[in-house]
Amino acid sequence: MKKRQTRINYDKWGRRFVLPFIIIYVVFSLIPLLSTFYYSFFEYYYRFGGAQKVGPNFIGLGNYITVFTEGKFFKYFGNTMIVWLMGFIPQIVISLLLALWFTSNRLKIKAQGTFKTIIYMPNLVMAAAFSLLIQLLFSTNGPINTLLTNSGLINEGIKFLDRTFTVRSLVAFMNFLMWFGNTTILLMAGIMGIDQSVIESAQVDGASSTQTFFKIVLPLLKPILLFVLVTSLIGGVQMFDIPQIFTEGKGGPNSSVLTIIMYINALMAPSKQYGLAGAVSVVLFIITVLLSVIMYVLTNSDEIKEKREIKKMNKGVKTKWNKRTSSWDQEFHSTHKEH
């Protein structure tokens, strides 16, 4: 008896494997996203410490008008962007330098695996533990002030946690430490993906290291840099845990590090203002999308121009071809009528 051969339906099994992800995405991402957008048009909150429920009452764009007229949104969004830039700029510069050093054939750094592990380790530390550690180190009676006073550099302890610049700098420093290792590894992967023969041929032709970097390496790293830039921007806009724990939910002096997500969290407790918090979230989502599109356009302006020129050329060729075919058709019809 011949064994009956069964054919595997790969499409069916593929749907089965994808189905759990789709269910989790719909339940935990899509439904909350749609409900946030829906409730942003309603007056819906609790008062008297959550004892009395108000709404949901449809008010149209009332919550959005409150967001733009109250002024808090722009202040806290500005805080978020300032702290993100203070951490991201040194992060991308240092990560790019480390990636170039680790992938350089000239330097040939030994024990690269150990160095990569060390720079990535802060990313594995919980943000809560990191924030409490830095808070303890830079407190008025902490080890940093004790070290500075004992060495005679200062007469009395500096109140790092009571100054706007120092609090912002410390929060940005923590974000830098937690993410520069991850950025370094991503940039290393991008540099290692570049064809080394191109770099070697440029060096043979007399190009210096600086010229090779700016003319060859950096343009070829644009996709990775754009990915790092956009993901870092999204993560920076969603900054919450480090400033929340570091400032004990107060946002630092003059609310200088009170981020937009901390503001949304404050709206949800204890009054649970679902409508206003939803409007803030929707506005934040739109701004994030616009900033991502702007970054994409700025970093790929040359490619966009080339695509536009190619489209124009193709349109020109099509119009010329259509004119030729129409003239040929007219000649054919005219000759056909004569005959």
From TrEMBL:
PROSITE patterns found in the cross-reference section: ABC_TM1 (PS50928)
SUPFAM superfamilies assigned to the protein according to its UniProt record, in alphabetical order: MetI-like
InterPro entries: ABC_transporter_permease, MetI-like, MetI-like_sf
One GO term of the biological process aspect: transmembrane transport
Ranges that cross the membrane: 21-41, 81-103, 115-138, 170-192, 213-234, 274-298
GO annotation, cellular component aspect: plasma membrane
Superkingdom of origin: Bacteria
Cellular compartments annotated: Cell membrane
Domain ABC transmembrane type-1: 77-295
Presence of the UniProt keyword Membrane in the record: yes
Protein topology in the membrane: Multi-pass membrane protein
Gene3D superfamilies reported for this sequence: MetI-like (1.10.3720.10)
Alphabetical UniProt keywords: Cell membrane, Membrane, Transmembrane, Transmembrane helix, Transport
Family classification: Belongs to the binding-protein-dependent transport system permease family.
Protein name listed in UniProt: sn-glycerol-3-phosphate transport system permease protein ugpA
Originating organism: Haploplasma axanthum (Acholeplasma axanthum)
Lineage: Bacteria, Bacillati, Mycoplasmatota, Mollicutes, Acholeplasmatales
